[in-house]
Fold this protein.
Amino acid sequence: MLILQGFSSYNDGLTLKSECKDTSNFPENKATFKKRSSIFQGNSIYFFGMKNFTLFTKKMKINTRKGTAKDLAAIYQLVYELAVYEKEPDALTASLEDYHRDFAAGYFETEVAEADGQVVGMVLYYDTYSTWKGRMMYLEDFVVAEKMRGQGVGQLLFDRFLDIAQERAARMVKWQVLDWNTPAIRFYEKNKAIIEKGWWNGKIFFQKQD
């Protein structure tokens, strides 16, 4: 049973009645929302608003919002979780203090997914520039907590990231994915991404300055 309660879409003010409704009994509401600002997919409903996206599942409500300095500890933990998944936990040498300093200086921004007051996923990104295409945004990290995977949280965050890029008139977005990370590659391909295989990464590490 999918329950909606008092939700208004931003597109045209369409509002469900404030009392709870089981959407299976209201096919006309389901069709109307699908045409406007939501997507029904399996047992989940996605709502797209101006400043955040919301996902209703059978068990919980998950929404995206702009990340703040208060979220950085949770974001740092998610980055560590990703480093472990990518088999490089020791490669994470930036500290939480680095995150706080650089976030305050505007080096990066984040969007988080939240459920029951807890951060369960995030995208971390920044504006950059393509000499071939123009304005673009770079997706540095994209993580969903392991316990929340497979519930649509990743799609919710990725859609929000793309939405922000388009709001800023970016011509493209860009990111990296490991060649062995088949689930991630399939996710991006499902979202019509071009996965380039002809470029090699170059990097130089500098000694950390105190």
User: Anything to note?
Assistant: The radius of gyration is 19 Å. The mean pLDDT is 81. The chain is about 25% helix and 25% strand. The longest helix spans residues 153-167.
